[in-house]
Amino acid sequence: MLFGLSFALASALATNAAFLFKQRGAVTAAPVSGRHPLRSAADLFRSRWWTIGWLVALGAWLLHVSALSLAPLSVVQAVLSGGLVFLAVIAERFFGFQLGRRQWTGLAITAGGLAALGLTSGHSGNGPSSSLAALISVESAVFALGALIVVISVRVDCSRRNEGMALAFAAGALFGVSDIAIKYLTHSALGGVLAVLNPWLLAAIAASVVSFYASARSLQIGPGLEVITLTSVAANTVAITGGIIVFHDSIGSGPAQIVARLVAFLLVITGAALMPAPTRARHLAPAR
Question: Where exactly are the structural domains of the chain?
Answer without folding.
Answer: 2-281
